[in-house]
């Protein structure tokens, strides 16, 4: 997983099972269109928001298979990254929590550090 951030946007890139690749850029506070994660034609809308302890990204798309996803990226006290994704599809809700451990040579995640500073708080 690769996370990047500047003053205006947040991006995430990751691959699953060698044939699913997510490469999304979201603007802070401004919805943007991008290809749908479910690979259907059309676009999804995504918007990023800094939070007290990280970044959250809200994603949604319409028919067919309308869905809404809220992803929260948070730095944990041990320096690892917690990604909590809650997906709403019709009457179904699924939450997945993933923990990414940093390598020893890395410092605090720049994404979380910058997001918390943008929200006016330091971790």
From TrEMBL:
Highest rank taxon of the organism: Eukaryota
Positions of region (Disordered): 29-51, 103-123
Listed Basic and acidic residues bias regions: 114-123
UniProt-recorded name of the protein: Uncharacterized protein
């Amino acid at each position: 997983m690769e996370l990047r951030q500047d003053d205006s946007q947040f991006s995430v890139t990751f691959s699953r099972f060698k044939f699913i690749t997510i490469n999304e850029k979201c603007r802070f506070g401004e919805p943007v269109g991008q290809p749908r994660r479910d690979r259907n034609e059309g676009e999804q809308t995504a918007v990023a928001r800094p939070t007290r302890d990280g970044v959250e990204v809200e994603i949604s798309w319409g028919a067919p298979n309308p869905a809404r996803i809220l992803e929260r990226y948070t730095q944990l006290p041990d320096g690892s990254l917690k990604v909590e994704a809650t997906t709403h599809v019709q009457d179904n809700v699924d939450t997945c929590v993933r923990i990414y451990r940093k390598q020893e040579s890395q410092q605090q995640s720049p994404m979380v550090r910058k997001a918390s500073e943008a929200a006016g708080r330091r971790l």
